Amino acid sequence: MFVPSFGVVIRAVLVVAGLWWCKEVWDRFPADRKRLKESQDSGEKGVIIFFWVLTVGIAFLAITFVIGLARAILAAL
């Protein structure tokens, strides 16, 4: 029987939150792309780019965690 440790539970919650974040930001993509093209405010452009760089990092970490978890499960079979 597998009893998850507190660390595993925290990581799982963070992965779910990260995936939710990525979904929310991905839904904004068309509006963000339009604002990047039309806006003259460099601060606004910087924030949009920062959010997208952050989202790519979160997606990378979430995918890495899920792949590692899948490998561990498959190795246990």
Short synopsis of the structure:
The protein is an all-alpha fold and about 80 residues long.
Category by helix and strand content: mainly alpha
Number of helices: 3
Mean pLDDT: 89
* Unreliable parts: none
Portion of residues in beta strands equals under 5%
How far is it from the N-terminal to the C-terminal residue, by CA?
13 Å
How many individual β-strands? 0
Query: What letter string, H or E per element, gives the SSE order?
Result: HHH
Shape: elongated
The percent range for helix content is over 70%
Map the helices and strands:
Elements: H1 6-27, H2 29-38, H3 42-76
Helix pairs in contact: 1-3
Describe this structure in words.
With 77 residues, this protein is mainly α. It has a domain at 42-77. It has helices at 6-27, 29-38, 42-76. The chain is elongated and about 55 Å long. The two termini are 13 Å apart.
Output the keywords.
77 residues; 3 helices
